[in-house]
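Sample entry (385 residues):
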Amino acid sequence: MSSFNGSEVVDDNLIQAVDPADTELDSALFRRKLMSWYRSHARELPWRNVNDPYRTWVSEVMLQQTRVAAVIEHYHDFLRRFPTVLALALAPEADVLAAWSGLGYYRRARMLHKAAQFITSERSGILPATAAELRTLPGIGEYTSAAIASIAFGESIAVVDGNVERVLLRLTGRPEEGNAAGRAFVQQQASALVPRRRISEGTNAAGDHNQAMMELGATICLPKAPLCLHCPVFSMCLTRGEHLTPPRAAQLSRPAAYLLSLRKRGTLTEVLLELRAADASLMPGMYELPPLPQDAVQGREPLLRLRHSITNTNYYVQIYAASGPEDRGLRRAIPAAKGDLHWIQTNRLGLMPLTGLTRKALQRLDVMKVNLPKLPNANNISRIA
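Predicted structure, serialized as tokens:
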């Protein structure tokens, strides 16, 4: 199959008829087609072709429910701060959260930190090499353990994320089901396709296969308008297009208001932030702009409006700022205790564990520097549909 250049000619075998009754995949043929395509079209990503299991682990945790472009931006910085398991284990949690700020789902960072401490104290700093052992670590579940075990150590085990599930459901002509039977079916199909060979002569058959499956779902077998005529296994697919999916739950909408308060200290500028309680149910120990009650901002014009989504909720956020007596009035309206409010120098914001919304707002308002990521092939694609 030729490269994607707009004038691509589809191979003859891509338009052969498929018998809908035949749901048995030819594993060897599938792998040949898939790997031939992957070797030519795989994106160049910084966590690929590395020989450090720690780096693979960090990337896989970061990629959970997060855009590739956002991960690239944080991956390099995170590894500069914590280049080894030991460096991560010895770091204060606040520093780990600061490096993670902007990626969201901060429990991932906390569990990564706890797992590094466990590996350092109980395993002499050596990451387990099998999926079964990896699952004993904090924050590592079925998907992450399989990904690390196959990509870093060559274990012959299937990796199933949202992209892989979509590919397999379309290949087999099966609708999406959110039940145990559906998940078992996908896992069975994925396991049947994984090469049985481990790492040999510098080739990681299982790890490369799993990355190719995820790459196919992320770049070709898209949730909407899949690029079927570019697909290397089009001739083996029973769906050839979008498959049946259950309706998604409606997004919730909520308003939210926050205060931006700045002050000068000599040549330095400081911003007022609130530190969330260590036992808060969401984002504990993170700094955010002080929230304001809705009745305190009635009739005021916001400095900034933006939308921020967390899981199934869209927050319609308004940032307020004022000067003089009005500013003091807004500050008095902050529900937080004075002990939870801190003046932070703006040149230190990049080192602070900020919530994603606060980071976004401060960057939009030019209070905080924006670090632009370097994108591979201009792709900005989620790992999970």
